[in-house]
Amino acid sequence: MQDTPQTQFTTRVFSGVQPSGGLTLGNYLGAIRRFVDMQDDGNETLYCMVDQHAITVWQDPATLRRNTRQLAAGYLAAGLDPTRSILFNQSQVAAHAQLAWVFNCVARMGWMQRMTQWKDKAGKNQQNASLGLLAYPSLMAADILIYHATHVPVGEDQKQHIELTRDIAIKFNNDFGVDFFPATEPVIEGPATRVMSLRDGTKKMSKSDPSDMSRINLTDDADTIAQKIRKARTDPEALPSEAKGLEGRAEARNLVNIFGALNEQSVDQVLADFGGRQFSEFKPALADLAVAKLAPISSEMGRLMEQPEEIDAILAQGAEKARAIANPILKRAYEIVGFVGA
Ligand code: AQP
After folding, report:
1. pTM of whole model > 0.90?
2. Residue 200 lies in a domain
3. How much distance in Å is there from the Cα of 326 to the middle of ligand 1?
4. 206 falls within a domain
């Protein structure tokens, strides 16, 4: 394999989602729907279930297996096509973890300790957090760079990790005097790069939030979606007619953003229709829209979950294709580092 000047890396898209719970509307709007767009735009795309990231916090093995298959079902139901995208689970391509070890030795402790996700997830009890949770961004850099991926569609919360991926690539290139890894770009676009909790407009919607009422799951049925939206926290004011009027109204902004993202409308277009109306009118409209958009995905996920062998076969084929790209890049990285026999 030749080392490639930065200008000559061809566009390759990589991203992943943790099977650390059921998929949320945040994962769908912030990530998976955009994975599909990038596939449909004709890019070379690889999408992963990052099961090794999931175990940085405790996962019950049976639940992890079910969540991994359910995530794969979510990818397929949302429109990812295994003949056009490489779909696989991270643990089945050993090169991710092998390159991550090299990156553990390139990256600095201070870089990891500055990460917001580490601080949020480890909380006050950092001494008791897993070593994997601290090293999470190094494995994420390996996930991306083992494919020389140039573009990574993610939600806003992952921006800092992609910047760290660039820092690791640059330091590796500088340390070894090569131009081997690309400076990857995050792709953070669209009206829903940060979907917030339905219970607290300052917290992002998350699959591991203890309150199920804080999120919409892709597997929720119509009644549950309607109930969660009805109970979503809001303020007593009517909706404004312009986006400026949402300032200081985090919960109202979140629901308007979700409506716009689901209906492929700008915030201004949503407010042109709903400005001056109360939440008692807006919430049922949002619930109907969410059900209409999510029900087909949810029912297809249900159908696929009844055929786990089909899912496993798709993931096995994807892993084989992923290994064919990753292994030569790992081999060259090992040679650069000075490992004999690579
Ligand atoms: N609320 C969100 N709004 C927009 N995008 C989001 N993403 C997650 N939550 C939102 C994006 O989904 C992709 C996959 O995320 P992940 O599973 O790797 O981890 P996460 O960001 O930590 O997501 P969760 O749901 O909060 O998982 P847990 O609770 O396990 O930590 C990423 O691109 C992310 O930006």
Report:
1. yes
2. no
3. 25
4. no
